[in-house]
Amino acid sequence: MRPLDGDYLSQFLSLFSQYDVPAAFWVNIKLTFFAAIIALVIGTVLAVMRISPLPSLRWAGTTYVNVFRNTPLTIIIVFCVLGLWSQLGVVLSSDFNENFFRLAVLGLAVYHAAFVCEALRSGVNTVPIGQAEAARAIGLGFLPTARLIILPQAFRGAVAPLGNTLIALAKNSTVAAAGSVAEAAGLMKTMIEFRSDVIFAIFFTFALGFVVIVIPIGLATTSLSRRLAVTR
Amino acid sequence: MSTQSVLFDAPGPRTRRRMMWLNIASGLVVAGIAALVLAKLGAKGQLAPSLWTPFLTASAWQNFLLPGLVNTLKAAGLAIIGSAVFGLLFGLGRLAQSRVIRSISGIVVEFFRAVPVLLMMIFIWLGLSQVNLVEPSEYPLVAVVAALILYNGSVFAELVRSGVFGLPRGQREAALAVGLTRSQSLRSVEVPQALIAMLPALVSQLVVILKDTALGYIITYRELLQEARALGSANGNILQALAVAALIFIVINYALTKLAPWIGQRLGRRTSGRAKAEAPSMIAATKGTQLP
Predict the structure, then answer these.
(1) pLDDT band (50, 70, 90) for residue B278
(2) What CATH number does residue A61 fall under?
(3) Fewer Cβ close by (within 10 Å): the C or N end of chain B?
(4) pTM value?
């Protein structure tokens, strides 16, 4: 590594005019955003299935979680591109790049849904038994109990683990590189290959980018989990 | 299970009958979805036996899957050992009396927990070619192991710290009372107990390490996923090859996730700390679950 003189700095800065770093990070943020919404929906359904009185639904929810939580995300993303798209002909968009983007969102969502489900279940565990007993005592069935009593409190109790899942999702959005999505990790590779003399500056730029994305999520969910925590 | 069964009443005869029908109906829906997927796969010709039989031949396992699995386990094993050393070092650093050592360890641990593993992997992989420390053929392995050590070592360091914080105060007070110094108490009383209390969480983290070795696929490390893809390309059954690779990962990881609570039960009595099966989270110290 050369000393940090003006020459090094100007060479490093000139890279920014050739490569659009913010645009790459924007792709990661978009991946995270869409995958988070879909994962939250699937995860909530799974959590309801796993606490339901029907053994077959419980079994299906548990199997989903065990399968996807124990499969490497890389395999799921590669499967979306090489399996779903190239073998089975699943096309999510007529635009070539948009198609890869949506396949990656799908892969990220089905993987993280398993973790959302587990986070919600740990939220359900924070709801005191008396709440469910009271709901049953006034004659509510399972679904009304879940919808009106348990889930609202479970979401409030699950903010911290859900935030952890969101942070992990933001970091894992880089794995979309395995699915031919042009995002930050792939751009970093291209930039280092093109200008390996400023490799440290390039790495720290991208690392800092993720620190900047991750820390606000952490701070926001920490304060949210305190504000929303049900006082008991 | 106690919270689950309390969500609904113990069913009476009428409810039991209704539940049986609902159970059959929901079972049919689940089975229907599975059948639909299988039918779609069959329509695409993906269920043809000729695509699955290659996995019953010795050459598929000898030349592709087993070498891939060995490489995966090798990277995971090296990463586990390295992470343990890294975690112990920086975990003790975060508990040190010197404020300088504490804050340096804190910055290192927090930085590596916030940066995606893949980013570090690519950086180390490409950076190795500039320093001439190892053979070029070893670059991918070194990059996978080093990146996993930096991330998971940081998680381990947090585990050590939160394990020590989770011990009752009386442990340290007793150690100081019998004349041990602060660091002696840390080394011979607190950290050993913290490690036992944290063992289930450590085992859960092994699942994360094993899964993350698959990132090596992106930097051309010849691990299980890479080999499965090569096998799939050779036989024209990429879908099936990926499914088999995923199944191998699921079986190993599922066994590890079952191991964690069992260890917690067995070792719970050997520590005054509370055994937990979860890694500490980056957010407030509430109940967390295993990180993705």
Answers:
(1) low
(2) 1.10.3720.10
(3) N
(4) 0.88
A131–B contact, CB cutoff 8 A: no
* Structural domains in chain A (count): 1
For residue A185, what are the domain limits?
18-228
Phi first, then psi: give them for residue A19, nearest 5 degrees. Answer: -120, 140
Among chain B residues, the shortest Cα distance to A225 is held by: B284
**Cα B22 from Cα A49, distance rounded (Å):** 13
- Whole-angstrom Cα distance, residue B253 to residue B259? 10
Q: Is residue A189 part of a domain?
A: yes
DSSP B117: H
Q: What CA dihedral angle connects A89, A94, A96 and A99, to 10 degrees? A: -70
Give the confidence band of A100 by pLDDT, cuts at 50, 70, 90: very high
Pairwise CB contact (< 8 Å): B7 & A199 = no
As for the ipTM of the complex, it is: 0.88
Give the gap in angstroms from C-alpha A95 to the nearest C-alpha of chain B: 23
Alpha-carbon span B49 to B237, nearest angstrom? 11
Alpha carbon distance B275, B261 (integer Å)? 9
- Residues composing chain B: 292
